[in-house]
Amino acid sequence: MSSDYEFSDEEVDNVFDDDDMDMQDQDSDADSGMDILDDFKPTTTTTRKAYDLPYESLTQSAVEALMAADVEHIRGIFGVDASTASLLLRHLNWNKEKLIEKYMDGASAMLVAAGVTMPEPEPAPSTTSTRGAGAIRRPTRKTKQASPAPTSKKDDGAFVCPICFDDTPGLTALALDCGHGACGACWGAYVRAKIRDEGEHACRCMAEGCALVAPDVFIKDVLLASSEDDAMGEDGEGAATYVRFQELLVRHFVACTNHLKFCPHPGCTNTVSCPGAAGRSVLTTIVPTVSCGVRGVVSSISTSSTIAPSPAPATVAGGKKPISRTNSMSASQELARGKEHKFCFGCPIDSDHRPVVCGVAALWLKKCRDDSETANWIKSNTKECAKCMSTIEKNGGCNHMTCKKCKHEFCWVCMGPWSEHGTAWYSCNRYDEKGGIDARDSQSKSRASLERYLHYYNRWANHEQSAKLALDLFSKTEKKMEEMQVTSALTWIEVGVQFMKKAVEEVDKCRMTLKWTYAMAYYLAKGNQKDLFEDNQRDLEKAVEDLSELLESPIEPENIPTLRQKVTDKTVYVQKRNTIVLEDTADGFLEDRWSWNVSVDGFDAPEE
Amino acid sequence: MALPKRIIKETERLVADPAPGITAAPHEDNLRYFDVTIQGPDGSPFQQGIFKLELFLPEEYPMAPPKVRFLTKIYHPNIDKLGRICLDILKDKWSPALQIRTVLLSVQALLSAPNPDDPLAPDVAKHYKEDEKGAMGVSREWTALYASG
User: Does residue A431 sit within a domain?
Assistant: First the structure.
């Protein structure tokens, strides 16, 4: 069962083939867990392009099933209970091989380090009183023990919580196997603070220096019990904290697993599995754009672990009915809200940065952060001294400039030497003078690199801006078409809105591609390859601009059929051009065809 | 909000049975804010110094550690010029079972055993690592200068 289990690490499977055989019989009781897994088989995506990597989206419970499988694997090998196995795995960051190796070297040391007392079959949370429980102090790696621990027992034997000093008669102590007792309210507050405030999934015993980790069942009991307690805050908070705890465990597992990545969109709890992009070395040849499968904004208030995707486009039944705003989301709302959660599996960019690879995209974003505003300001507010090239800001006064550094005197307007100006001090009409031309020439050379950067940056930023504007425009257009539908009773306009929506979506997608082609072109070394790349870029850009223009054309009831025809044709064409750009660039990466004018991680250094 | 029983009891005990070389008294208007003095431990360069500190118990105490800061200038690799202290139990190694008393004893112990390998004041730590004798001399000077009463 576990050998054909498709998410598990291949390497591990190969190493432990023998164990897999043994596990066949043990797996029968885990079948229920496996069944859940089957529900999360890839939701087959439509036509996959060559440059798309195979990936699949997993819900939180699917990831939990993966974790359970790992736990089961370890449980089978070590013969420990599930709670111990999962504490061990968490301690070693879910690295099964390392765990097995270390465990074989010294099981007891490993168990102590992971915060499990001893490998007993059932070390379930003991809710025994401190009385009677032999307080075994675990070996500690703690700092100085400063003073004797507070007494948790009074002479008369009644329990006093060492944390809150509550001595109410009949107060019962809760403790882990170590026997360090505390009252339930303190445990609740402690576990809650660990999980909520510190985002910590391992809650160690409260006693100073005690390294025992509270098992999940203990945490659950403590949290759910504290919920009932009025003093612990509103009802259900304990349950919510336990949900958060489970989420933290999943996040930890995902962070430790190479082929998994958490969806970076706020409030989303989905995970994407992309074995093709695990490891940094592949990132020079592929751009692992993935999507977690959820569309739209996920309510961050929701604490439930399963997130339902936002509703599919409502189909209006019954022919003539106009779109009712109450029960169906308008197409533009859906566009704005329902954007797919796309992100890059290989780097922190939370959108599609194809066609450019992660390393180059990161370089570009860093440059933009550092440079673009400064560069724009320098360009519009300063000039360089024609003689020593110092950058000079003119912050007042006349056009007679004297360079502070080299004392060169020149005219701010024509950049020529001041000596040629004679007595016309306050106005410059000497544009054609040779001195001025030379000065401007040298100036322009020194500005060339800045200009080059701004050329790419402005186009990069412009595409993003245009994409946003297209969405705005579409919402206006849509409204207008709906109004016309109501007044003129044209039923087919409903379909009309759909073609507009498709076109806008395509424009948005292509503008994202175009945006990143500018980042790529900025770093591409000069040559035939770059020329070809820019040809493709130009064709796509032309097509996208044409389609954008079409979308902006006035809409009248009479011209809608022709408009629809034109837009649909153009949309198909744009789609093709986009595919060409993406495919060609992706092939180029695989063939190692692109060379850069800077050094990029993982690529050969530029020649020169 | 009423003061938790834990803080009341701890305060009572601190006043009734103070740890040797340590005083801690809460402010009248804010019972979570303590004025603290710690005597420099014998055998350390801080011997005979009286160091003033402030200690504050945050709302989450004892689930969160108290905030402690030196007010007296001190030349120590784990205490920076703002008086902030680098001590594991004040950060990630905090346990709700620790108390004001234990924290202050740990701070006192830190004075006897500086740890230049985990520095908060890198220049002092460098001095301590390269020329311990000289550095301890400076610590003594500072103690005489700033902590002599």
Answer: yes
- Using CA atoms in the order A187, A193, A195, A200, what is the torsion angle rounded to 10 degrees? -100
pLDDT at position A70: 93
Alpha carbon separation from A464 to A357, A458, A461 (Å, rounded): 19, 10, 5
In a domain, A485, yes or no: no
Q: What is the distance between the alpha carbons of residues B127 and A447, in angstroms, rounded to a whole number?
A: 49
C-alpha–C-alpha distance, residues A517 and A524, integer Å: 10
Domain of A398 in residue numbering reads as 380-448
CA distance A109 to A128: 26
Domain end position, chosen among A448, A478, A507: A448
A140 contact B CB<8A: no
- The answer on A104 and A242 residing in a single domain is yes
Sole residue written with tokens 């000497």: A430
Interchain contact, B105 vs A146, CB within 8 Å:
yes
> How many beta-carbon contacts under 8 Å exist across A and B?
61
DSSP secondary structure of A536-568: HHHHHHHHHHHHHHHHHS---TTTHHHHHHHHH
Contacts of A214 in chain B (CB under 8 A): none
Tell whether A66 is covered by a domain: yes
Q: Who among A144, A149, A207 is closest to B106 (CB)?
A: A144
CA dihedral A30, A35, A39, A41 (to 10 degrees): 70
Lookup: tokens for A513: 């591609």
Does B89 lie at the interface with A, CB-CB under 8 angstroms?
A: yes
All residue ranges of chain A with pLDDT < 70 are: 1-50, 117-157, 226-235, 296-338, 372-373, 376, 396-397, 421-436, 439, 442-443, 445-446, 486-497, 606-608
Q: What are the CA-CA distances from residue A199 to residues A186, A196, A246, A247 (Å)?
A: 18, 6, 11, 10
Q: Counting beta carbons within 10 angstroms of the beta carbon of residue A281, is it exposed (0 to 12), middle (13 to 18) or buried (19 or more)? A: exposed
The DSSP annotation for A569-595 comes to HHHHHHHHHHHHHHHHHHHHHHTT---
Last residue of a domain, one of A448, A469, A496: A448
Of A64, A11, A9, the C-alpha closest to A40 is A64
| Domain total of chain A | 2
Question: What residues of chain A, 206 to 235, have a C-beta less than 8 Å from chain B?
Answer: 206-210
- State yes or no: is A210 an active-site residue: no
Contact between chains at B98 and A144 (C-beta distance less than 8 A): no
pTM, two decimals, is: 0.67
For A208-249, write each residue's pLDDT tens digit. Answer: 878 899 999 999 999 988 655 544 445 578 889 999 999 999
d(CA A452, CA A149): 69
CA dihedral sign of residues A22, A24, A30, A34: positive
A164, A168, A200, best to mutate vs chain B, most B CBs in 10 Å: A164
The CA distance from A273 to A115, in Å, is 30
Helix residue spans in A176-215 (DSSP H): 184-192
A142, A166, A210 ranked by CB distance to B5: nearest: A166
> CA-nearest residue of chain A to B110?
A144
**Peptide linkage before A355 cis (omega within 30 of 0):** yes
Mean pLDDT over B14-25 rounds to: 91
**A579 falls within a domain:** no
Q: Which amino acid is at A164?
A: C
